[in-house]
Design a protein that fits this description.
The chain is mostly beta strands. The chain is built from one helix and 28 strands. The termini are far apart. Keywords: Membrane, Transmembrane, Transmembrane helix.
Length: 397
């Protein structure tokens, strides 16, 4: 592992801790000695991590002189000082440092600065930290209207950080927190960064968008149904560890009861509802176009539905508002029924009332007649009983 160059330099390759010591160069009557102090820096998992993992850094030193008492300063990829926890430093030969939980943004080249006053040492040792994760790691909420098209997207950072290890992943969906999980697709990424996707069975239709960058997972729901709402989770797995990123899909719809044109003098209820509870900073709100403040109805906290009673024709809008920002707006036009329909409705109401009255009268008359027949039968039964007991027959003279 060693060679002498043309300039009479000694080059030692693949330096090891055991190479520490005193090297002497003799030339004629001249002798020059150099003391070689060797440091070895090791990071757990070879520097490949997932978010929230806690790496450990091990710094070892060897020298022919008494080992120095080192001061170690760490700088992350943003050149900010990181203050680790020192776990071991008994013999000055081995220092073990425990870092904080990592985030995907911690990926990059870190610096370990080693300092000693005696002998004087100021040495920088660089090392790489790669954290595989998502560009959007936090829970994201996405709103959609029934029958609309929705695209759900996850951006991975493996190309950005030049991840040189293979890993796998999957996309799954569940309607509620404790509901059954349905797997939508599997994917794997090779050490060369090539991605392969496999669509799994599902009870609703979706499309995998292939014309996107290799570091993006996207699925398209061409026609969203109300029961397509829920949590869509993308998971990455590496060496038995995993990390997830979720998108919560909230679906909104509007309807009316009863459905159809509004007859004159009648009333209908407009219903606006979402598929899951809204956060505290969001609400549903009905508004009548060109209406007044009286034509506004808001949902209360934790409500998934808001209703408004309508007695006149007009255009109504239901807004889903989050932090004063309108996420979705759906309209419902209330149309007035033609006059003849109103007459039909009125006639049907009058006819129905008359029919109900007639049926009530018929029931009363039938009840009275039935009661009279019952009373007559009772009297005849009593008369027969009387005659049988006296065993006489009285004839009229």
């Amino acid at each position: 592992r060693s060679e002498i160059t043309r300039n009479k330099h000694l080059r030692v390759s693949d330096l090891r801790l055991s190479d520490a010591g005193i090297y002497t160069c003799e030339y004629g009557s001249h002798t020059v000695s150099i003391s070689l102090h060797v440091f070895k820096l090791m990071i757990s998992s070879n520097g490949y991590f997932l978010p929230n993992e806690i790496p450990e850094l091990t710094l070892m030193q060897n020298s022919s002189h008494p080992l120095s008492d080192l001061t170690i300063t760490l700088f992350n990829s943003n050149n900010n000082i990181v203050r680790p926890k020192l776990l071991q430093n008994k013999t000055r030969q081995k220092y073990i440092l425990k870092l904080k939980k990592l985030e995907a943004t911690d990926s990059g080249t870190w610096m370990c600065h080693v300092h000693s006053d005696s002998p004087l040492i100021n040495w920088n040792i660089s090392f790489d930290v790669k954290v595989l994760g998502f560009q959007n790691p936090d829970l994201e909420r996405k709103y959609a209207a029934v029958d609309s098209t929705v695209i759900l997207s996850w951006s991975l950072n493996f190309q950005k950080i030049k991840w040189k290890e293979g890993f796998t992943g999957q996309l799954s969906w569940k309607q509620q927190e404790n509901a059954t999980t349905h797997e939508l697709l599997d994917f794997n990424v090779t050490a060369r960064g090539e991605q392969h996707r496999t669509k799994k069975g599902s009870h609703f239709r979706f499309e995998i968008l292939e014309n996107k960058p290799e570091s993006t997972i996207e699925v398209k729901l061409p026609k969203v149904h109300f029961n397509h709402s829920g949590q869509y989770q993308c998971q990455l797995a590496y060496n038995g560890r995993s990390v997830q990123s979720k998108i919560e899909l909230v679906v909104m719809k509007v309807s009316a009861n009863p459905v159809g044109p509004l007859p004159r003098g009648a009333e209908m209820t407009l219903i606006c509802q979402v598929s899951s509870p809204l956060p505290s900073n969001a609400q549903l709100r009905w508004e009548r176009v060109n209406g007044t403040r009286m034509d506004i109805k808001k949902s209360k906290q934790d409500e998934v539905m808001v209703e408004v009673n309508v007695s006149t024709a007009g255009l109504w809008n239901c807004h889903l508002i989050e932090d004063n920002d309108r996420k979705i707006s759906l309209h419902y036009p209330v149309e007035e029924a033609p006059v003849w329909i109103s007459y039909v409705v009125i006639g049907a109401s009058i006819g129905g009332s008359a029919l109900a009255f007639g049926l009530a009268c018929l029931c009363i008359i039938s009840g009275i007649s039935w009661q009279r027949r019952r009373q007559r039968a009772k009297r005849m039964a009593r008369a027969r009983q009387y005659l049988l007991e006296n065993k006489t027959c009285q004839c009229q003279q």
